[in-house]
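Sequence only, no structure available. Ideas?
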Amino acid sequence: MNNIKTVGMISSYRGLETRADWLWQQTPNQFGIWDNIQMLALAEKPDFLVMYQFDFPQPSPPKSWLDSFRKSQQKPEADIHSRLRGVSKERIIYLLREPPLDEIVEINKHNYQQAQNYCGYVSGPDDFAPTPNYMPAIWYHSNTFQDINEMPCPQKVATCSWVTSGISRTANHRQRLDFLQSLQSSGFKFDLYGRNLPGWAKPAGELGNKWYGMAPYYYNLAIENYADNNWYVSEKLWDSLLAWCLPIYYGGPAADKLLPPGSFLRLPSLDEKGIAYIQEVTATPDAWYAAKDAIAEARQVILHKLNLLNWLSEFVAQKS
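Reply:
I predicted one. Tokens follow.
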């Protein structure tokens, strides 16, 4: 235990700031240990610190001379420094997770600019990030690492599912909802799960564990919110493969560089051509059987190589 370095975390994602067990499901060891590190998000004095999708305060013009005065009295830098828990700059890692959608690209740029003041490593899935890179894998099955790593392929009893949300705040989100509506109007039969979906979608409901909405299915629709650069790929693909689905994937080329050939299918477009492709592929389970070995290989890559804990372990080893 003496050689193990603790890694703390701060985030602007709601609910993560109080999660003592963040990422613990992504290791076979107890209490977040992976090789040379222990993920202790709330550690008071960690050896390293991850700023995970941390949003820095946005500058806003003062509305009056009084607002300007008040603004000059505020010191957001002091608050940020207090949250860094005494970790030195070269041991602070900034990982931005959200894609560079048009509506938030300036926010992303601001976050990168500010992060360089506090962090020795600043990265995200953007060409304009200080270090453009793929986001290491986080998945959202609550099964144990041992279960996902060692269990045989679950019995497949249904054809296709889609786990998504009803978020509509950006043009890309609205495009995905339009495709959902077109897919349902086509008569294609699939099971839809997710939160905040519109009433017309008639979803089966939310899932406490995404596993149950994926593992029984041969195919899973994995539709990214963003497909326009070489870096962005999200948990939608990891979750699908870890549940032994053959993903029908809409996204950028990053997945091709990270995963074995044949482990997922490419949805050509979010239109009638894409709907015809889904209908053709899912008409039989043949494509799933043909891809089963590649899916098994991809699962091991996700679990042991792309895993964010493994990425952090390698980073710490370079700094220690």
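Confidence is low (pLDDT under 50) at residues 65-74.
Hope that gets you unstuck.
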